[in-house]
Structure formats: C-alpha cells, structure tokens
Amino acid sequence: MNIKNIESFMDILKEVTIPVAVFIILVVGAIYIYKLLNTDGPLNQMIFKPKNPKWDTTIELKEGDKLHQLIDDAKRQEVFKKLSGITTDVSKIDSLIALENSSTKINYRIIRNAMPLIEIKNDIITVDITKKAHMNDIITKVVFFIPFVLFLFLSLILLIEFIFNDPENLMLVIGVLFTFLAAIITAIFSSFLRRPYLFAKRIKEVMSAK
Predict the structure, then answer these.
(1) Distance, CA of 209 to CA of 206 (rounded, Å)
(2) Residue partners of 115: CB distance under 8 A and separation at least 6
(3) Each residue of 83-125: pLDDT tens digit?
(4) Phi, psi for residue 49 in degrees, rounded to 5
(5) How far is CA 164 from the centre of its chain?
(6) Sign of the C-alpha dihedral, residues 111, 116, 118, 121?
(7) What is the pLDDT of residue 96?
(8) What pTM was estimated for this model as a whole?
C-alpha cells in the first residue's frame, strides 16, 4: 500500500469517524433518557406522578389495632410492590389483582402506569378519565407533535442536501443524525408523558367490553 492510498484511507476514516461518534453519543443519550424515564427515580416521580398520589400507602394506628396484623399488611404491601411495581394500600391489593386477572389485555405494567386515573372505592375499580385529563393529552400531543415534525422535516432536507448537492459536507451528516435523533427523543418523551392517559383508556375499553 503506497503513501497516497494510506492518505486517502486516513481522509475517509476522518470523515467517517466524527459522524459515527456523534451518532453513538446521541443513541447512548436517547437510551439513557429512555431508561431514566422508565424507572421509579426522583425525576420520573416528579414528571409523571402527582405530589400526593392516591395510591401511596399510609398506616394509621388506631386503638385496638393488632401489631401482627399491621406487620402482615406491611409484608403483603411489600410483596405486591415487588411483583407488580405498584405501591398501594393493602385494602386495594385484592381489587388490583382481580383487575389484572380479568383480561389477558391487562397486566401490571398497564395498571401501574394508569394508577393516577384509577379509583378504588369499596373494592370497586373505576377509571376516571376526566375532561381535564383528556384536554391535557390533546395539548401534550400538539405540543410535542410540532417539534417532532419539524425535526423530521429538517432531517429530510439535510439528507437531500447531503445526497444531491454536497456529499462531502461533514456538518450535513452530523445535522442529519442530530435532527433525526432529536425527533425520536421527542416522540419517546411525548409517549411517556401520555402513558397514564393511554393506559387508563385501554383499561376502560377492556372493562366496557365485558
């Protein structure tokens, strides 16, 4: 291999390395955001769950309460949380188990995400999708749909410009990768913001079909 071939190979390598590195960084960033939003960490709690969620458990000690019963309830809550990921009052556990067993279209992941819109009174489950929740979902779709389309459109324009007019422009490649990943991240974040409404709607449809 002569010097010219080596120099040509190095030039190609330089042109490829930067876009690939940028793409890898963006992908890793998108995966990190996805995992961060899909955990029960403080950011997830702050964004997706109300400050005083209805399903938070509180133990009120009353005169005549048996200590062993309180311990049994606490253990049951802990086991249920490990199995389903749902923290709730022990009196609601049986209702949630019955809901999960009621259809193959409903699982604990769906129930967990829909909990902000689920109410349990006297062992009866109701899915309370209010007008406010419906309007919030519409606003979320509109707010995130616009940047998603803009990022996607910009990515397409940059790709056309790169292919037909300036195939050696490294910045165009970076621009295409960045705007495309930005569109994907926007779609992912939008879906996470909408998930309580979407999963609650799915549960309500299944319950209404019976």
Answers:
(1) 5
(2) 53, 54, 55, 86, 88, 196
(3) 888 888 888 899 999 999 988 899 999 999 899 889 888 888 8
(4) -125, 140
(5) 37
(6) positive
(7) 92
(8) 0.63
